[in-house]
Please model this.
Amino acid sequence: MDYAKLVRDTFDSEVRSLFAKKPSMIPFFLNHERRNLAEQNLVKEIKVTEWKKGAWLNQHRILRIAKASVHRFCHLALLKKEHELRSSAENARLDKHANREATAAEAFNEMMKDGVVSPLKQTEKSLGGEQ
Model:
């Protein structure tokens, strides 16, 4: 089975079907600078899976894996483009917000470990139980 051709054809058809309602986006993904690298890595992973793991993949499974990879590729390419288009001030603001959320999550986890906060008690209170 020619994995490279199968992956390439799947990439083309999936991008066209995903962006059928926005045809102006199709060339962005089909001509993306990282497309060939993504396809080569997927083919390599399929071969490694078959050779080393002994998991023989039929064409249907390979198509499903390729389609999922195309979805992920498109999502990441859009995020990267969005990040490039945002101003440095906006990126800094978003990074600061993400750091605050991470710090708050860490503090909450510490409080749970110390027994200060109990998710079960919070749920009981919200349901009108034990106070």
Notes: The helical segments are 3-18, 26-30, 35-53, 59-85, 88-114, 119-126. The longest helix spans residues 59-85. The mean pLDDT is 84.
